[in-house]
Amino acid sequence: MLKRRQFIQQSAALSLGGLLTAKSFSSLLHTPLNQPAGLQLFTLFGVLDKDVPGGIKKIAEVGYKEIESAFSMKGGFYGMSAKDFASLLKDNGLSWKSHHVLGTPFVPPPGMKMPNGPDGKPMVIPKMNTLKDEADIIINEMVEGGVEWLVCANITINTPADIKTAVEILNKTDEACKKKGLKFAYHNHDWEFKPVEGKIPYDIFLKETQVKMELDLAWAIKGGQDPVAMFKKDPGRYPLWHVKDLDSTHENILPVGSGTLDFKRIFAASESAGLEYYFIEHDMPKDAWASIQESIVYLKKLAPVS
C-alpha cells in the first residue's frame, strides 16, 4: 500500500514525465484495492477437502492471488504438511500469507448456535492444536510453510477468568511469534464486543496486548462497531481484514457487494488502519464458488484489483 509520501513522489514523477493520465491518477487514488485479492479458505469449508489440488487451481483461475488458510476436516493443512501445502499454492501462483488457529478449544458463547455445514447439519469442530496447548508446534509449522501471519481465529471469553487467560495466551503467542520472525494477529466475531460482567473483551485485548488485529468488517459491524472509527482510534493496529457482506438485518452473510456494507468508505480508510492484506470470506455459503466469484468481480468494479 502506498504511503502519502510515496503517493506525492510518484505523482510528481509522473507529472514531470507527462505520463500522469487520468487512468494512472485514478489508479493511485485507489491504491488499497490495487492490492491482490486474498481468500480465506474457510469460505470453502467442506468443499475444498473434496479435491484440494483441483480446488486450489480453481481459486487461482477465479483471480485470487493470496491465501489465508483455516482448519480442514482432513487434518493438517488440507491433508498435507505445511511445506507441501505451501508448494501446492506456489505451483498455482498463489501466496500463502496467513493461517487461522484456535486460541483455546472452542466453547460456543452462551446462546450461540453452531452454523450449519455444507451437509445442512450443525458444524462439529474436530480436535485441533490450540495456542493454549500446542503453540510451539503451530509456530514451527508456520515457519516450515513460510507463512507471514499467524492469526488466532477464536478464543474463549465467556467469563472474566476466560478473558484474563486469553490475554495471557495472546501475549505469550505474540512474543513466541516475534522470536521466529512471524507476525501475529487476533480475528474477531461479534461476541468480543458484548459486555462480560460490564467489560468489553475487545477493548481489553486492545489495551492489555500489543497484538495486531485482523478486523472482520462484517462481524464488527454486527457487533455495533464502525470500522472507520476503530481505525482512527487505533491507527496501524488493523493490518489484516476479512471482507464479507451482510443483509439489512445483519443476520445473514452475503457475497461482497450484494449487501449493506459501504466498502468504498471502509477501504478509503485503509491507510489509517495500516492495511497489508485483505481476505474475502463467506461463512458457510450455499454456493462457495459462486460467492467467491461474485465477490472478486464486485471489488474489481469498485476499484482496480491486481
Brief write-up:
With 306 residues, this protein is α/β, with parallel strands linked by helices.
Overview of the molecule:
There is one protein chain. The protein is α/β, with parallel strands linked by helices. The protein has one domain: Divalent-metal-dependent TIM barrel enzymes (TIM Barrel, Alpha-Beta Barrel), CATH 3.20.20.150. The chain is built from twelve helices and ten strands. Strands 1-2-3-4-5-6-7-10 form an eight-stranded parallel β-barrel, surrounded by four helices. Strand 8 (245-246) and strand 9 (253-254) form a beta hairpin. Helix 4 (82-91) crosses helix 5. 38% of the residues are buried.
- Tell me the major beta sheet: 8 strands, parallel, barrel
Order of helices and strands: HHEHEHEHEHEHEHHEEEHHEH
Strand order of the largest sheet: 1-2-3-4-5-6-7-10
Tally of alpha and pi helices: 12
Topology:
Blueprint: H1 4-16, H2 22-29, E1 38-40, H3 52-62, E2 66-69, H4 82-91, E3 95-102, H5 131-145, E4 149-154, H6 160-179, E5 183-187, H7 201-208, E6 212-216, H8 217-222, H9 227-233, E7 240-243, E8 245-246, E9 253-254, H10 263-268, H11 270-273, E10 277-280, H12 288-302
Parallel strand pairs: 1-2, 1-10, 2-3, 3-4, 4-5, 5-6, 6-7, 7-10
Antiparallel strand pairs: 8-9
Helix pairs in contact: 4-5, 5-6
